[in-house]
Amino acid sequence: MANTKSSKKAVRSAKTKRSHNLFWEKAVKNNVKTLKASLEHKKDVKELNTELVALQKALDKAAKEKVIHKNKANRVKSRYAKRIAALQATPARKSARSTK
């Protein structure tokens, strides 16, 4: 248990910082989860882009608050942007049957 005045204050501030960091970690995690689910269900590219923007926003804020490292934020943003760009590049396939 904290004995000195400064150690008691350190415990209080650590508790506050922990809840603040957990908030941003959860925000990033939820955005990643929704984007992954949308990618698996092959939703519309416009919807994917709006979810990507939300993820990028959460990652940037978490990196700004130093909850996660800025390189990790950039890496995650890049990976999901590449996956969505790949979906945009490939046109929707038509049926395999040939019309003769």
Superfamily (CATH H level) name = Ribosomal protein S20
Structural class: mainly alpha
| Oligomeric status | single chain
Order of helices and strands: HHH
Strand proportion: under 5%
Shape annotation: rod-shaped
Alpha plus pi helix count: 3
* DSSP E strands, number: 0
- In the CATH hierarchy, what is the class? Mainly Alpha
Query: How widely separated are the two ends?
Result: 83 Å
Keywords: Coiled coil, Ribonucleoprotein, Ribosomal protein, RNA-binding, rRNA-binding
Family: Belongs to the bacterial ribosomal protein bS20 family.
Function: Binds directly to 16S ribosomal RNA.
Coiled coil: 38-72
From the structure above, extract its key features.
100 residues; rod-shaped; 3 helices; Methane Monooxygenase Hydroxylase, Chain G, domain 1; mainly alpha
Summarize the structure in words.
The chain is mainly α and 100 residues long. It has a single domain (10-86), classed as Methane Monooxygenase Hydroxylase, Chain G, domain 1. It is 76% helix and 0% strand. Helix 1 runs antiparallel to helix 2 (45-64) and helix 2 (45-64) packs antiparallel against helix 3. The radius of gyration is 21 Å and the shape is rod-shaped. Belongs to the bacterial ribosomal protein bS20 family.
